[in-house]
């Protein structure tokens, strides 16, 4: 029987993971610093506070989405396909191009989004959503 007596110059190879962990931690820190600057949200306009009261009252246009193919433009029933022409006629000479859109909570947002698209197509700059 043969037996091996220790004394050979056999070396065991082990990987040193400390530099690898250091590099990974530096990369994590770099990504954490860079990522918040890459996020982009929707552009919104925040209402400005002023101490002055408006000199002239505004005529607000409120579009109420009924849901059966019609909308109400300041309590006047209008078919959805006629809304584009009515909005262009109302805002032809108006300086303030803003409308308010209101709908029931039971309606799908798709119907409200369609009215918003029609308003944007009519050339309105600002469309505001009203809540209950």
Characteristics:
132 residues; alpha/beta; Nucleotidyltransferase, domain 5; 3 helices; 32% helix
Structure overview:
- Helices cover 32% and strands 17% of the residues.
- The chain is an alpha/beta fold.
- It has a domain at 61-129: Nucleotidyltransferase, domain 5 (2-Layer Sandwich), CATH 3.30.420.270.
- The protein has a five-stranded mixed sheet with strand order 3-2-1-4-5, with helices on one face.
- The longest helix has 21 residues, at 18-38.
- It is elongated, with a radius of gyration of 33 Å.
- The model has no long low-confidence stretch (mean pLDDT 79).
Question: How would you sum up the global shape?
Answer: elongated
Average pLDDT number: 79
Radius of gyration: 33 Å
Proportion of beta-strand residues: 15-25%
SS content category: alpha/beta
Note the gap between the termini. 93 Å
Tally of helical runs: 3
**Biggest sheet, spatial arrangement of strands:** 3-2-1-4-5
Under CATH, the topology of the domain at 61-129 is which? Nucleotidyltransferase, domain 5
The tally of beta strands, per DSSP, is 5
Percent in helix? 25-40%
**What is the CATH architecture descriptor of the domain at 61-129?**
2-Layer Sandwich
Oligomeric state as shown: single chain
Biggest sheet statistics: 5 strands, mixed
The CATH class name of the domain at 61-129 reads Alpha Beta
The parts where pLDDT drops under 50 for at least 5 residues are none
Strand and helix order: HEEEHEHE
